[in-house]
Each structure stands twice: as structure tokens, then as C-alpha cells.
Amino acid sequence: ALATGHRGSFCTLHAHHPHHALKRLESLVLRSSPQWTIPTVRQLIVDGLDAIIVCQKNNGLRTLSQAALIRGAEDFGYLLDDIKLL
């Protein structure tokens, strides 16, 4: 669904923190397209994603543990705004 351009798509990455998820996605993109530069990959990720949601499993139940909006990217990494969870 992510490749078809539909709004509201989801995907899964294994990570413990939103920054870690974005770095993992970055490395996956670079494995398939090593000729691309990191700034190009980061801009594609920022253009394609709005937020990162982190879930954890406790006693067989998945719960939201962190959420962040993706604001942009810089040379040092991604700019995220944490979303307060209730």
C-alpha cells in the first residue's frame, strides 16, 4: 500500500525509539540504492512519513509507548516532536 500513493498507509519497522526507526529505514533504503546520498534519503523519508508510533508488548497486549511527528531532517539526523500519550 505504501507504493501505491494511498493516503493513510501504515508500515512496520522494528525499533525501540522513533529515531531508531528512522535510522533503520534510512539504512534499508541505502542498502537497495547505495548511490543515493544520505541527505536525499532523509528528504524522501521526511516527504513520505508524517509520524512514528512505537508499540511495546506487555503481558500479551500491545500498547503505545511513544509517538513523534516528523518535522524535517538536518545533517545530524531527524527533527521530531514528541506527542504526549495519555
Instruction: Indicate the proportion of strand residues.
Output: 25-35%
Low-confidence stretches: none
Number of DSSP strands?
Answer: 3
**In DSSP terms, counting alpha (H) and pi (I) runs of 4 or more, how many helices?**
2
- pLDDT average, as an integer? 89
Structural class: alpha+beta
Helix proportion of residues, in percent?
A: 25-40%
Strand order of the largest sheet: 1-2-3
Largest sheet: 3 strands, antiparallel
Order of helices and strands: HHEEE
- Between the first and last Cα atoms, what is the distance in angstroms? 30 Å
Task: Indicate the radius of gyration in whole angstroms.
Answer: 14 Å
Write the layout of secondary structure elements.
Layout: H1 18-32, H2 38-48, E1 51-58, E2 61-74, E3 77-82
Antiparallel strand pairs: 1-2, 2-3
What this model shows, in words?
- The structure is a single chain.
- The protein has 86 residues and is α+β, with helices and mostly antiparallel strands.
- 30% of the residues lie in helices and 33% in strands.
- Strands 1-2-3 form a three-stranded antiparallel β-sheet.
- Helix 1 (18-32) crosses helix 2.
- The longest helix is centred in the N-terminal third of the chain and has 15 residues, at 18-32.
- The termini are far apart.
Outline:
By secondary structure, the chain is α+β, with helices and mostly antiparallel strands. The protein has helices at about 20-30, 40-50; strands at about 50-60, 60-75, 75-80. A three-stranded antiparallel beta sheet has the order 1-2-3.
